[in-house]
């Protein structure tokens, strides 16, 4: 056993911070690491990965809708879509009912590559849950739902009105 670690090889929680809170922080750090791995695997930057996530979840989006979801200007989202298109991750296609509009559609190959990384991770997390009883899973779910609500409440009360778009802050 390493010095300063418990019998599971983990460091004990800092004084005044509860163990589950420390564990949530560790999950956040691992999620960040997984996102870096996914970006490297797909050869995209963080903004492009965010765009791909929205496109994969929605199936397709107009450039304007994608800009809103990413908090980017129209010009900036055009650059994002250009990069995704050049890398083979997305295509611009005519809107099915509006001849003047375009849709940005994720490429099947990129969706497959992204999901090929994400689905096994999700399956591993589900397998971890399978080790808990139904009552324990209900407790875990209640706790995580409360954490999500706490994050949302904090963000809702601390959102800055008229905050600049992401691309405007970068300049």
What's this entry about, in short?
The chain is mainly alpha-helical and 171 residues long. Helix content is 65%, strand content 6%.
What do you see in this structure?
The structure is a single chain. This protein has 171 residues and is mostly helical. It is built from 7 helices and 2 strands, in the order H-H-H-H-E-E-H-H-H. Strand 1 (90-94) and strand 2 form a beta hairpin. Helix 3 (63-70) crosses helix 4 (74-86). The model has no long low-confidence stretch (mean pLDDT 88).
Radius of gyration: 20 Å
Q: From the helix content, strand content and strand pairing, which structural class follows?
A: mainly alpha
Shape estimate: elongated
Query: Low-confidence parts, pLDDT < 50 over ≥5 residues?
Result: none
Strand arrangement, major sheet? 1-2
- What is the string of helix and strand elements? HHHHEEHHH
Share of helix among residues? 55-70%
Largest sheet: 2 strands, antiparallel
Number of strands: 2
Count, helices:
7
What is the percentage of strand-forming residues? 5-15%
Distance between the termini: 48 Å
What's the average pLDDT? Answer: 88
